Fold this protein.
Amino acid sequence: MRAPESPIVPRERALTRLGILAWSSIAVSLFLIFFVAREADATMGGELQRIFYFHVPAAWAAYLAFGVVFLGSVAYLRTGARRWDLLAHSAAEVGVLFTSLVLITGPIWAKPVWGTYWQWDARLTSALVMWLTYVGYLLLRGLSTDPSRTGRLAAVVGLIGFVNVPIVHFSVQWWRTLHPSGPTVANLEQSSGLGPPELIAFFASLIAFTLLFAWLMAARVRLGRLSDRVDQLELAL
Amino acid sequence: MSELTWLFIAFLAVWAGLGIYLFSLSARQKRLERRLSDIEPRS
């Protein structure tokens, strides 16, 4: 009899459906970004400000990913179950991908608007530190051949590394930075400077990136399970 | 460079980044499936 699958292992059909849903919502959000959202003020980059509709949702997806790394690490340290380690490892990889997109799109917007690609201000520096922390996490996993020891070490890095995530998010409120501050939920239109069409495009993109994150996570976890199966069979030979 | 050129570069970077990662996932998946099909008959 087949052993019951772990709840975090996605089934093929669910993975395909999630992928279709994610890419359909990306298509919808692209339409909204380019045909519904209006051009921004010249001080925010005019047409270039449309980068924001990908830059911010990518940052949101990175926060989600590193939150999953944190939770997976806590669960792994408590239970020692491999599935939590795999979940944290997968989330770190996906999080590094999204943070890389943030660190690439940000400077592309900054160059024509600020006149420079990079400023060592609190938001940019803390985001770079966050990226380096999780790149280090991934490199650490390749250093040891003992999976249990590597898992525990990585989990500790996953726990400590998460401390920086709220610092990245709140840095624009805690310190004076060049980076535009984010909107507050209480008065969204006024604090964001966005009208209803722009807010619709923004939230559509946020949902699309959340679905994309979930799909990439599911695909990466499936890959990890397959890798574990190959390792087990190789050991048994 | 014009605003639209910068915008194009940014979107190209986003899709290239996602594309490279998806390609890497797919390549790793295929390599593991090949390895699995080699090992399974022997185990």
Notes: The two ends of chain B are 60 Å apart (CA to CA). The longest helix of chain B spans residues 3-39.
